């Protein structure tokens, strides 16, 4: 049985919020449950990032990202994937290992980029420095 109405909106795995098309809204019984404008996921990513950048602390950013993950999984992962350097330090306090392959010409980033993106927190093996 296909989810409808509030079941859709309460399921973060299927909820796309205002990115649902008119047809999808009708089929899923969402008419009147969402704001009228339809906003693309790309525009929603921009809005989320603008809002996050205005927040004064990482704990506020983390809290909002957690809420987003609960409400709209697709949008959460799109935000993370498209802004990985900025988001990863907020959602993961563990060490992040940037892929520096052999040969260096095939690496995903340079040692300088890893250092810059991590605000100087990158730990690099001696042979890369």
Short description:
The protein contains seven helices and no strands. It is mainly alpha-helical. It folds into two domains: 6-91, Hemocyanin, N-terminal domain (Up-down Bundle); 95-129, no CATH class.
Characterization of the model:
49% of the residues lie in helices and 0% in strands. The chain has helices at residues 6-9, 22-27, 41-54, 58-71, 73-82, 84-91, 111-117. The chain folds into 2 domains: 6-91, Hemocyanin, N-terminal domain; 95-129, no CATH class. The protein is mostly helical and 129 residues long.
Essential attributes:
129 residues, 2 domains, Hemocyanin, N-terminal domain, 49% helix, mainly alpha
Question: Structural class, from secondary structure content?
Answer: mainly alpha
The overall number of domains is 2
Helical segment count? 7
E-strand count: 0
**Sheet bearing the most strands, described?**
none
Give the ordered list of helices and strands: HHHHHHH
Strand percent estimate: under 5%
Helix content: 40-55%
Average pLDDT over all residues: 80
**Overall geometric form:** elongated
Q: Radius of gyration in whole Å, from Cα? A: 19 Å
User: In CATH terms, what is the architecture of the largest domain?
Assistant: Up-down Bundle
pLDDT < 50 runs, ≥5 residues: none
CATH hierarchy class name of the largest domain: Mainly Alpha
């Amino acid at each position: 049985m296909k989810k409808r109405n509030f079941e859709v909106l309460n399921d973060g795995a299927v909820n796309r919020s205002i990115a649902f098309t008119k047809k999808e809204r009708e089929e899923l019984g969402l008419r009147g449950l969402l704001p009228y404008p339809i906003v693309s996921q790309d525009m929603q990513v921009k809005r989320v990032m603008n809002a996050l950048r205005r927040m004064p602390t990482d704990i506020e950013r983390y809290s909002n990202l957690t809420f987003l993950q609960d409400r709209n999984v697709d949008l959460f992962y799109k935000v993370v994937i498209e802004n990985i350097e900025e988001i990863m330090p907020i959602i993961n306090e563990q060490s992040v290992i940037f892929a520096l392959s052999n040969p260096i010409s095939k690496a995903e980033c340079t040692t300088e980029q890893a250092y810059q993106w991590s605000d100087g927190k990158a730990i690099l093996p001696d042979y890369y420095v």
